[in-house]
Amino acid sequence: DAGVIQSPRHEVTEMGQEVTLRCKPISGHNSLFWYRQTMMRGLELLIYFNNNVPIDDSGMPEDRFSAKMPNASFSTLKIQPSEPRDSAVYFCASSGDRYYEQYFGPGTRLTVT
Amino acid sequence: DAKTTQPPSMDCAEGRAANLPCNHSTISGNEYVYWYRQIHSQGPQYIIHGLKNNETNEMASLIITEDRKSSTLILPHATLRDTAVYYCTSGYSTLTFGKGTMLLVSP
């Protein structure tokens, strides 16, 4: 099993540009989570999907952030336009019937200059 | 806000037991306690969970007090590879991670 796959691993972009982060969950898992981690705020849940449906997006910072899950094997997190304060490591995680046993991807380190 | 509190850091000698405490006096009676750890530059990794009884798996043991206000994660024989941030968390459909405890295992 390849585990949760995220791409890109590193992204450097300029303020105002659109950024798209990608995630492939573990096959068979029905829940997918997007987190953001910074030194100041720690690990924050942004949004989670169950069976491809967004269930809780209360952690999404603002309208510049959007997430989609068009099918069970793919999800995107988009930031448009990006700002320097969006710089962080973004993790995707997936889980099966035991929602608490989440498997995290390696993360995408985003730097917005 | 996280419902759990942990010390920011702890040290442990290699080969000794690491005992990581967590206070969770405000969690509900049917709310499980979960432990994760995050090794530097990696995503968090699930370790163990419990409700009332003590639990053990291949990674660690979890001791939960009878009043469920606190718990302790035990790594019986810590190794250098156990150096990580350890998170104690709870939740129903999602998990809220606090700042965790940075465990440093030294030779």
The helix content of chain A, as a percent range, equals under 10%
* Average pLDDT metric of chain B: 92
Oligomer: heterodimer
The gross shape of chain A turns out to be globular
Distance between the termini of chain B: 36 Å
User: Spans of chain A of 5+ residues with little confidence (pLDDT < 50)?
Assistant: none
Rounded to the nearest angstrom, the radius of gyration of chain A is 13 Å
Architecture overview:
The complex is a heterodimer of chains A (113) and B (107). Chain A is 0% helix and 55% strand. Chain A is globular and about 40 Å long. With 113 residues, chain A is mainly β. In chain A, a hairpin with a 2-residue loop joins β7 and β8 (74-79). Chain A has no helices and eleven strands. Chain B has no helices and nine strands. Chain B has strands at 9-13, 18-23, 33-38, 45-50, 55-56, 61-64, 70-75, 84-90, 101-106. Chain B is globular and about 40 Å long. The mean pLDDT of chain B is 92. At the A-B interface, β5 and β10 of A face β4 of B.
Layout of SSEs?
The complex is a heterodimer of chains A (about 110) and B (about 110).
Chain A: E1 5-7, E2 10-13, E3 19-24, E4 31-38, E5 42-50, E6 53-56, E7 65-71, E8 74-79, E9 88-95, E10 103-104, E11 108-112
Chain B: E1 9-13, E2 18-23, E3 33-38, E4 45-50, E5 55-56, E6 61-64, E7 70-75, E8 84-90, E9 101-106
Parallel strand pairs in B: 1-9
Antiparallel strand pairs in B: 2-7, 3-4, 3-8, 5-6, 6-7, 8-9
Summarize the structure.
The complex is a heterodimer of chains A (113) and B (107). Chain A is mainly beta and 113 residues long. Chain A has strands at 5-7, 10-13, 19-24, 31-38, 42-50, 53-56, 65-71, 74-79, 88-95, 103-104, 108-112.
Entry keywords:
heterodimer; A: four-stranded antiparallel beta sheet; 11 strands; 55% strand; B: 107 residues; mainly beta; five-stranded mixed beta sheet; 45% strand
